[in-house]
Amino acid sequence: MTERSLAAPPRLLGTRLTRRIRSLGGLLASLALTFLGLLCITFLIGRIIPIDPALAIVGDRAPAHVYERVREELGLNLPLWQQFFIYVGQVLRGDFGTSVLTGRPVLEDIARVFPATLELATLGILIGVIFGVPMGVVAAVHRDRWPDQLVRVIGLVGYSVPIFWLGLVGLLVFYAKLGWVGGSGRLDFFHEGIAPSVTGMILIDAAIAGEWDVFRNALHHIVLPAALLGYFSLAYISRMTRSLMLEQLNQEYITTARVKGVSEARVIWVHALRNILVPLITVVALSYASLLEGSVLTETVFAWPGLGRYLTNALLAADMAAVLGATIVVGLVFVGVNLLSDLLYRLVDPRAR
Amino acid sequence: MSETLSTAGWRAWLLSERPQSALQARLGQAWLSWNAFQRNRLAMLGLALILLLVLVAAFAPWISPYEPNVQNLRLRLQPPGAAHWLGTDELGRDILSRIIHGARITLYIVTLVVVIAAPIGLLVGTVAGYFGGWVDAVLMRLTDIFLAFPRLILALAFVAALGPGIDNAVIAIAITAWPAYARVARAETLTLRRSDFIAAVRIQGAGAFRIIGRHIMPLCLPSVIVRVTLDMAGIILTAAGLGFLGLGAQPPAPEWGAMISTGRAYLLDQWWVATIPGLAICLVSLGFNLLGDGLRDLLDPKRRGG
Question: Which of A124, A242, A248, B186 allows an S-S link to B129, with CB 3.0 to 4.6 Å?
Answer without folding.
Answer: B186
